[in-house]
């Protein structure tokens, strides 16, 4: 059972569209308030630049401060919601993977650091020249989106690419834990993929070491070097993220949540959850949905 609403790109388009949507943030929030006011996922890439206002933006249960210059990039499947001041302004653009890939089949979106690994933060704080550059690109994106010029989609794709390049250059090294040009980081990314498809059934770290054809000792060494954590902690973090997503709504009992995550022993799941979050599943659910 899927509890968290998944928004689709065509819900934001006036007509069929071509895989992209661009708007000023204030209008977007007013026009789509009913769809985006509660925690939700997307099946598309979401990008938001804040130019005015303040608030809190929560992405996969991590809170980020919203302020002028805050830029957030989100890949499909991430859960988010926000609490924003009434004077918030900025830009928002959404696009499908197909929109990007059809016009550049040789460059994958996950080559950009913020999409490369789940360990890399979705927040980029811009100031000075970096803010001015990205602001102007977003303004040009909106103007092009509203117009009816030849090669419109091609120009929009080019402008989005330039935004992503500017964000990559502004990306803080502290945010960029997993880099593309490191052999160790490549192993971490493969581990992430394996955990994503197997965490409900395979929670033992030895399974992932076997899949990677390396010893568990070496895999733990890599995880500690890149992430400062162990293989077991990587697996547990993914389990807990999904647990929190499932607990957000009352449709499932705690026992059903545990079962969906591969735990037949409900009490063991509850102890695990409390050990890592300091709350029982019931306490988390009560606090989150109040």
UniProtKB/TrEMBL annotation:
<dbReference type="Pfam" id="PF12833">
    <property type="entry name" value="HTH_18"/>
</dbReference>
<dbReference type="InterPro" id="IPR003313">
    <property type="entry name" value="AraC-bd"/>
</dbReference>
<keyword id="KW-0805">Transcription regulation</keyword>
<dbReference type="InterPro" id="IPR037923">
    <property type="entry name" value="HTH-like"/>
</dbReference>
<keyword id="KW-0804">Transcription</keyword>
<protein>
    <recommendedName>
        <fullName>HTH araC/xylS-type domain-containing protein</fullName>
    </recommendedName>
</protein>
<keyword id="KW-0238">DNA-binding</keyword>
<dbReference type="GO" id="GO:0043565">
    <property type="term" value="F:sequence-specific DNA binding"/>
</dbReference>
<dbReference type="InterPro" id="IPR009057">
    <property type="entry name" value="Homeodomain-like_sf"/>
</dbReference>
<feature type="domain" description="HTH araC/xylS-type">
    <location>
        <begin position="189"/>
        <end position="287"/>
    </location>
</feature>
<dbReference type="InterPro" id="IPR018060">
    <property type="entry name" value="HTH_AraC"/>
</dbReference>
<dbReference type="GO" id="GO:0003700">
    <property type="term" value="F:DNA-binding transcription factor activity"/>
</dbReference>
<dbReference type="Pfam" id="PF02311">
    <property type="entry name" value="AraC_binding"/>
</dbReference>
<dbReference type="InterPro" id="IPR020449">
    <property type="entry name" value="Tscrpt_reg_AraC-type_HTH"/>
</dbReference>
<dbReference type="InterPro" id="IPR014710">
    <property type="entry name" value="RmlC-like_jellyroll"/>
</dbReference>
